[in-house]
Design brief:
About 45% of the residues lie in helices and about 15% in strands. With about 325 residues, it is of the alpha/beta class. Helix 2 links the parallel strand 1 and strand 2. Helix 8 crosses helix 9, helix 9 packs across helix 10 and helix 12 packs parallel to helix 13. The longest helix is centred in the C-terminal third of the chain and has 15 residues. The structure holds S-adenosylmethionine.
Length: about 325
Amino acid sequence: MYKHITVLKHELIEMLNLKPGGVAIDCTAGGGGHTQLLLEKLGSEGVVIAFDRDQQAIDHLEQKFQKQLAARQLILVHKPFSNLESFIRSQKNELVIQAIIADIGVSSPQIDTPERGFSFTKDGPLDMRMDQKQTTTAESLVNTLNMEELKTILKSFGEEPKAHYIAQAIIREREQSPITTTSRLADIVKAAVHYKSPSKTHAATKTFQALRIAVNKELDELNNLLMQAFSTLATGGRLGILSFHSLEDRIVKRQFNKWAARNQKIDFHSIPAHAKHSTPPPEGKIIKPFPLKPSDDHQIDNPRSRSVRCRVIEKL
Ligand SMILES: C[S@@+](CC[C@H](N)C(=O)[O-])C[C@H]1O[C@@H](n2cnc3c(N)ncnc32)[C@H](O)[C@@H]1O
Protein backbone atom coordinates (compact mmCIF):
# COMPACT_ATOMS: atom_id res chain seq x y z
CA MET A 1 0.00 0.00 0.00
CA TYR A 2 1.57 3.32 -1.12
CA LYS A 3 0.11 6.35 0.66
CA HIS A 4 1.45 9.84 0.05
CA ILE A 5 -0.48 13.11 0.23
CA THR A 6 0.68 15.37 -2.59
CA VAL A 7 1.87 18.78 -1.43
CA LEU A 8 0.69 21.95 -3.26
CA LYS A 9 -0.68 19.70 -5.99
CA HIS A 10 -2.92 22.17 -7.82
CA GLU A 11 -0.95 25.27 -6.82
CA LEU A 12 2.25 24.00 -8.47
CA ILE A 13 0.63 22.68 -11.64
CA GLU A 14 -1.45 25.85 -12.12
CA MET A 15 1.74 27.93 -12.18
CA LEU A 16 3.17 25.94 -15.09
CA ASN A 17 0.94 27.41 -17.78
CA LEU A 18 0.54 24.03 -19.52
CA LYS A 19 -1.00 23.61 -22.96
CA PRO A 20 -2.68 20.37 -24.05
CA GLY A 21 -0.50 18.17 -26.22
CA GLY A 22 2.81 19.25 -24.69
CA VAL A 23 5.61 17.36 -22.97
CA ALA A 24 6.34 17.74 -19.25
CA ILE A 25 8.75 16.05 -16.87
CA ASP A 26 8.05 15.06 -13.27
CA CYS A 27 11.47 14.45 -11.72
CA THR A 28 10.10 12.95 -8.48
CA ALA A 29 6.99 10.97 -9.36
CA GLY A 30 6.61 9.21 -5.95
CA GLY A 31 2.93 8.46 -5.40
CA GLY A 32 2.05 10.02 -8.75
CA GLY A 33 -0.07 12.92 -7.47
CA HIS A 34 1.62 15.61 -9.54
CA THR A 35 2.12 13.17 -12.42
CA GLN A 36 -1.63 12.53 -12.52
CA LEU A 37 -2.42 16.22 -12.77
CA LEU A 38 0.21 16.76 -15.46
CA LEU A 39 -1.35 13.94 -17.46
CA GLU A 40 -4.79 15.50 -17.10
CA LYS A 41 -3.58 18.98 -18.13
CA LEU A 42 -1.65 17.72 -21.17
CA GLY A 43 -4.48 15.46 -22.32
CA SER A 44 -4.35 12.39 -24.55
CA GLU A 45 -1.96 14.03 -27.03
CA GLY A 46 0.50 15.01 -24.32
CA VAL A 47 3.42 13.08 -22.83
CA VAL A 48 4.70 13.00 -19.27
CA ILE A 49 8.16 11.66 -18.49
CA ALA A 50 8.36 10.66 -14.81
CA PHE A 51 11.53 9.86 -12.87
CA ASP A 52 11.96 8.19 -9.52
CA ARG A 53 14.96 6.38 -8.10
CA ASP A 54 12.94 4.35 -5.60
CA GLN A 55 11.90 0.84 -6.66
CA GLN A 56 8.84 0.93 -4.36
CA ALA A 57 7.61 4.13 -6.04
CA ILE A 58 8.20 2.68 -9.52
CA ASP A 59 6.22 -0.49 -8.65
CA HIS A 60 3.35 1.66 -7.42
CA LEU A 61 3.42 3.96 -10.47
CA GLU A 62 3.40 0.97 -12.85
CA GLN A 63 0.20 -0.23 -11.19
CA LYS A 64 -1.46 3.17 -10.90
CA PHE A 65 -0.82 4.30 -14.48
CA GLN A 66 -1.17 1.03 -16.43
CA LYS A 67 -3.45 2.67 -19.02
CA GLN A 68 -1.31 5.77 -19.57
CA LEU A 69 1.86 3.66 -19.79
CA ALA A 70 0.29 1.42 -22.40
CA ALA A 71 -0.82 4.48 -24.39
CA ARG A 72 2.73 5.94 -24.16
CA GLN A 73 1.23 9.03 -22.56
CA LEU A 74 3.51 8.30 -19.64
CA ILE A 75 7.13 7.18 -19.72
CA LEU A 76 8.58 5.98 -16.40
CA VAL A 77 12.28 6.29 -15.76
CA HIS A 78 13.74 4.38 -12.81
CA LYS A 79 16.83 6.54 -12.38
CA PRO A 80 18.05 9.53 -10.36
CA PHE A 81 16.88 12.78 -11.95
CA SER A 82 20.51 13.80 -12.54
CA ASN A 83 20.11 11.55 -15.62
CA LEU A 84 17.52 13.92 -17.08
CA GLU A 85 19.65 15.48 -19.81
CA SER A 86 21.18 12.19 -20.96
CA PHE A 87 17.75 10.55 -21.00
CA ILE A 88 16.24 13.33 -23.12
CA ARG A 89 19.24 13.22 -25.49
CA SER A 90 18.80 9.45 -25.88
CA GLN A 91 15.26 9.86 -27.26
CA LYS A 92 14.78 9.40 -31.01
CA ASN A 93 12.53 12.44 -31.43
CA GLU A 94 13.45 15.93 -30.43
CA LEU A 95 11.24 16.86 -27.49
CA VAL A 96 9.92 20.35 -26.77
CA ILE A 97 9.76 20.38 -22.98
CA GLN A 98 7.05 22.71 -21.67
CA ALA A 99 7.52 22.14 -17.95
CA ILE A 100 9.72 20.37 -15.44
CA ILE A 101 8.82 19.85 -11.80
CA ALA A 102 10.54 18.34 -8.78
CA ASP A 103 9.08 17.73 -5.34
CA ILE A 104 12.33 17.13 -3.52
CA GLY A 105 11.16 15.59 -0.28
CA VAL A 106 11.07 12.15 1.20
CA SER A 107 7.86 10.29 0.42
CA SER A 108 5.57 9.17 3.24
CA PRO A 109 6.17 5.45 2.46
CA GLN A 110 9.91 6.06 2.75
CA ILE A 111 9.52 7.70 6.19
CA ASP A 112 6.76 5.41 7.44
CA THR A 113 8.36 2.07 6.56
CA PRO A 114 10.76 1.19 9.42
CA GLU A 115 12.83 -1.09 7.15
CA ARG A 116 13.84 1.92 5.03
CA GLY A 117 15.63 3.40 8.05
CA PHE A 118 14.70 7.07 7.48
CA SER A 119 12.93 7.69 10.76
CA PHE A 120 14.26 8.00 14.30
CA THR A 121 10.77 7.37 15.69
CA LYS A 122 10.62 3.82 14.29
CA ASP A 123 13.26 1.21 14.93
CA GLY A 124 14.79 -0.17 11.79
CA PRO A 125 18.08 -0.80 10.01
CA LEU A 126 20.20 2.33 9.49
CA ASP A 127 19.61 2.42 5.74
CA MET A 128 18.14 5.71 4.35
CA ARG A 129 18.75 4.87 0.69
CA MET A 130 16.13 6.21 -1.71
CA ASP A 131 17.66 4.08 -4.42
CA GLN A 132 17.86 0.51 -3.14
CA LYS A 133 20.55 -0.35 -5.75
CA GLN A 134 22.97 2.06 -4.19
CA THR A 135 25.70 0.60 -1.95
CA THR A 136 26.31 3.47 0.52
CA THR A 137 23.89 3.40 3.48
CA ALA A 138 23.63 5.49 6.64
CA GLU A 139 25.10 2.49 8.48
CA SER A 140 28.18 2.42 6.28
CA LEU A 141 28.75 6.17 6.75
CA VAL A 142 28.22 6.13 10.53
CA ASN A 143 30.58 3.21 11.02
CA THR A 144 33.40 4.18 8.66
CA LEU A 145 33.74 7.98 8.44
CA ASN A 146 36.35 9.62 10.65
CA MET A 147 35.57 12.30 13.22
CA GLU A 148 36.17 15.25 10.86
CA GLU A 149 34.11 13.73 8.05
CA LEU A 150 31.20 13.04 10.40
CA LYS A 151 31.37 16.55 11.83
CA THR A 152 31.41 18.10 8.36
CA ILE A 153 28.33 16.14 7.29
CA LEU A 154 26.43 17.04 10.48
CA LYS A 155 27.35 20.70 10.15
CA SER A 156 26.91 21.20 6.43
CA PHE A 157 23.86 19.05 5.81
CA GLY A 158 22.16 19.28 9.22
CA GLU A 159 23.31 22.71 10.40
CA GLU A 160 23.77 20.86 13.71
CA PRO A 161 25.46 23.15 16.28
CA LYS A 162 26.45 20.18 18.44
CA ALA A 163 28.11 18.30 15.56
CA HIS A 164 31.36 17.88 17.49
CA TYR A 165 29.74 16.13 20.49
CA ILE A 166 27.57 13.92 18.32
CA ALA A 167 30.48 12.84 16.10
CA GLN A 168 32.56 12.13 19.22
CA ALA A 169 29.76 10.00 20.73
CA ILE A 170 29.30 8.06 17.46
CA ILE A 171 33.01 7.22 17.29
CA ARG A 172 33.05 6.15 20.97
CA GLU A 173 29.93 4.01 20.69
CA ARG A 174 30.87 2.24 17.48
CA GLU A 175 34.08 1.05 19.17
CA GLN A 176 31.84 -1.01 21.48
CA SER A 177 29.84 -2.45 18.57
CA PRO A 178 28.80 -1.23 15.10
CA ILE A 179 25.79 1.12 15.07
CA THR A 180 23.22 -0.63 12.91
CA THR A 181 19.78 0.64 13.94
CA THR A 182 17.91 3.94 13.85
CA SER A 183 16.90 3.74 17.51
CA ARG A 184 20.47 3.18 18.72
CA LEU A 185 21.71 6.15 16.71
CA ALA A 186 18.83 8.29 18.01
CA ASP A 187 19.71 7.31 21.60
CA ILE A 188 23.40 8.09 21.05
CA VAL A 189 22.53 11.56 19.70
CA LYS A 190 20.06 12.20 22.52
CA ALA A 191 22.67 11.35 25.15
CA ALA A 192 25.41 13.33 23.38
CA VAL A 193 23.42 16.57 23.38
CA HIS A 194 22.02 15.96 26.90
CA TYR A 195 18.50 16.06 25.58
CA LYS A 196 16.08 16.07 28.50
CA SER A 197 12.88 18.06 28.26
CA PRO A 198 10.45 17.13 25.52
CA SER A 199 10.90 19.80 22.87
CA LYS A 200 9.05 20.27 19.60
CA THR A 201 11.87 18.78 17.57
CA HIS A 202 13.62 15.54 18.43
CA ALA A 203 17.32 15.82 19.30
CA ALA A 204 18.20 13.54 16.37
CA THR A 205 16.26 15.49 13.71
CA LYS A 206 19.28 17.32 12.31
CA THR A 207 21.56 14.27 12.47
CA PHE A 208 19.06 12.16 10.53
CA GLN A 209 18.53 14.92 7.95
CA ALA A 210 22.29 15.28 7.50
CA LEU A 211 22.87 11.56 7.03
CA ARG A 212 19.96 11.25 4.62
CA ILE A 213 21.31 14.10 2.49
CA ALA A 214 24.78 12.54 2.52
CA VAL A 215 23.59 9.00 1.70
CA ASN A 216 21.47 10.20 -1.22
CA LYS A 217 23.82 13.02 -2.34
CA GLU A 218 20.71 15.18 -2.31
CA LEU A 219 22.35 18.59 -2.76
CA ASP A 220 24.51 17.39 -5.67
CA GLU A 221 21.40 15.92 -7.25
CA LEU A 222 19.54 19.22 -6.84
CA ASN A 223 22.39 21.32 -8.27
CA ASN A 224 22.67 18.97 -11.24
CA LEU A 225 18.95 18.99 -11.75
CA LEU A 226 18.69 22.77 -11.84
CA MET A 227 21.35 23.13 -14.53
CA GLN A 228 20.09 20.21 -16.63
CA ALA A 229 16.43 21.20 -16.33
CA PHE A 230 17.01 24.78 -17.38
CA SER A 231 19.04 23.78 -20.42
CA THR A 232 16.49 21.09 -21.36
CA LEU A 233 13.44 23.38 -21.13
CA ALA A 234 12.07 25.03 -24.25
CA THR A 235 11.97 28.83 -24.33
CA GLY A 236 8.86 29.88 -22.44
CA GLY A 237 8.90 26.62 -20.50
CA ARG A 238 8.64 26.61 -16.71
CA LEU A 239 10.60 24.91 -13.95
CA GLY A 240 8.88 24.42 -10.58
CA ILE A 241 10.64 23.14 -7.47
CA LEU A 242 9.18 22.18 -4.10
CA SER A 243 11.83 22.03 -1.41
CA PHE A 244 11.50 21.06 2.23
CA HIS A 245 14.42 22.57 4.07
CA SER A 246 16.38 25.79 3.99
CA LEU A 247 19.55 24.25 2.48
CA GLU A 248 17.64 23.21 -0.63
CA ASP A 249 15.52 26.33 -0.84
CA ARG A 250 18.65 28.49 -0.65
CA ILE A 251 20.18 26.65 -3.61
CA VAL A 252 16.99 27.05 -5.65
CA LYS A 253 16.54 30.70 -4.71
CA ARG A 254 20.14 31.64 -5.55
CA GLN A 255 20.11 29.88 -8.90
CA PHE A 256 16.71 31.33 -9.87
CA ASN A 257 17.93 34.82 -8.90
CA LYS A 258 21.04 34.31 -11.05
CA TRP A 259 18.96 33.36 -14.07
CA ALA A 260 16.62 36.26 -13.46
CA ALA A 261 19.65 38.51 -12.84
CA ARG A 262 18.04 39.55 -9.56
CA ASN A 263 19.62 40.54 -6.24
CA GLN A 264 23.07 40.10 -7.73
CA LYS A 265 25.64 41.84 -5.60
CA ILE A 266 27.26 43.73 -8.48
CA ASP A 267 29.29 46.80 -7.65
CA PHE A 268 28.31 48.97 -10.61
CA HIS A 269 30.94 51.59 -9.69
CA SER A 270 33.68 49.07 -10.36
CA ILE A 271 32.38 48.17 -13.83
CA PRO A 272 33.92 50.23 -16.64
CA ALA A 273 31.36 52.40 -18.48
CA HIS A 274 31.65 50.46 -21.77
CA ALA A 275 30.91 47.17 -19.98
CA LYS A 276 27.80 48.46 -18.19
CA HIS A 277 25.77 48.17 -21.38
CA SER A 278 26.98 44.65 -22.02
CA THR A 279 25.58 43.10 -18.81
CA PRO A 280 23.95 39.88 -20.07
CA PRO A 281 20.15 39.96 -20.20
CA PRO A 282 18.22 37.75 -17.77
CA GLU A 283 17.72 34.15 -18.86
CA GLY A 284 14.67 33.59 -16.69
CA LYS A 285 11.63 35.29 -15.17
CA ILE A 286 10.62 34.39 -11.63
CA ILE A 287 6.90 33.74 -11.59
CA LYS A 288 6.18 34.89 -8.05
CA PRO A 289 8.55 37.17 -6.15
CA PHE A 290 8.11 35.16 -2.92
CA PRO A 291 8.00 31.38 -2.62
CA LEU A 292 4.57 29.86 -2.32
CA LYS A 293 3.84 28.27 1.06
CA PRO A 294 0.98 25.96 2.01
CA SER A 295 -2.20 27.45 3.48
CA ASP A 296 -3.08 26.76 7.12
CA ASP A 297 -5.73 24.27 5.98
CA HIS A 298 -3.22 22.45 3.78
CA GLN A 299 -0.85 22.20 6.76
CA ILE A 300 -3.61 20.81 8.97
CA ASP A 301 -4.54 18.21 6.33
CA ASN A 302 -0.90 17.31 5.79
CA PRO A 303 1.47 18.31 8.61
CA ARG A 304 4.44 17.16 6.49
CA SER A 305 3.76 20.07 4.12
CA ARG A 306 4.63 22.58 6.88
CA SER A 307 8.12 23.42 5.65
CA VAL A 308 7.57 23.33 1.88
CA ARG A 309 8.58 26.25 -0.35
CA CYS A 310 7.53 26.36 -4.00
CA ARG A 311 9.45 28.39 -6.56
CA VAL A 312 8.75 28.62 -10.29
CA ILE A 313 10.83 30.23 -13.04
CA GLU A 314 10.15 30.68 -16.76
CA LYS A 315 12.97 30.29 -19.27
CA LEU A 316 13.21 33.38 -21.48
C1 LIG B 1 7.96 13.84 -1.95
S1 LIG B 1 8.06 12.46 -2.98
C2 LIG B 1 7.20 12.95 -4.42
C3 LIG B 1 5.73 12.83 -4.31
C4 LIG B 1 4.98 13.12 -5.57
N1 LIG B 1 5.14 14.46 -6.03
C5 LIG B 1 3.50 12.80 -5.41
O1 LIG B 1 2.68 13.67 -5.72
O2 LIG B 1 3.18 11.71 -4.98
C6 LIG B 1 9.70 12.50 -3.54
C7 LIG B 1 10.09 11.35 -4.45
O3 LIG B 1 11.26 11.76 -5.13
C8 LIG B 1 12.13 10.67 -5.25
N2 LIG B 1 13.47 11.23 -5.40
C9 LIG B 1 14.14 11.98 -4.51
N3 LIG B 1 15.32 12.34 -5.01
C10 LIG B 1 15.39 11.82 -6.26
C11 LIG B 1 16.37 11.85 -7.29
N4 LIG B 1 17.52 12.49 -7.14
N5 LIG B 1 16.09 11.22 -8.45
C12 LIG B 1 14.90 10.57 -8.63
N6 LIG B 1 13.96 10.49 -7.68
C13 LIG B 1 14.20 11.11 -6.52
C14 LIG B 1 11.93 9.89 -3.97
O4 LIG B 1 12.29 8.54 -4.15
C15 LIG B 1 10.43 10.06 -3.74
O5 LIG B 1 9.69 9.02 -4.28
